[in-house]
Task: structure prediction
Amino acid sequence: MIRTALIAAALLVATPALAQEPTADGYQLQMSVVRNGVTVISTRTQIAEGAPASATAVIGDVTYDFEANLFTVQGDGAEAQMMVEAHLSRDNEQIAAPRLTFLRNQSAGIGIGDETGDVLRMNIVPIVAGEPRSEVQE
Result:
């Protein structure tokens, strides 16, 4: 009887499909511009699957805009992969269009350098009701 209980417990631990993990109610999307190692602009918004997000940030006489869409990666089978597709512009001129694929309910981030030497960072963090947010390490 003890052996049966131990085997059942081991199967529950070893089988992620049986474990119930909290699911994200949406995601916090952060966009920032880093110049010479210093964050000069940082903006955050919430994004949910199928609902586009956008934000604008101004530093001096320069305006940064971003738009993003979040969706499930098609053909994944388990629908465990998500993708955020963003369009970044500086003074109405597109400067980057990154796509970031990540695991559902996980945090991820990407950094992209441009010709001016700025680094554009995009981080996405799941929002789970009742749990504190964790930040993506830069």
In short: The radius of gyration is 19 Å. The first strand starts at residue 26 and ends at 35. Confidence is low (pLDDT under 50) at residues 3-20.
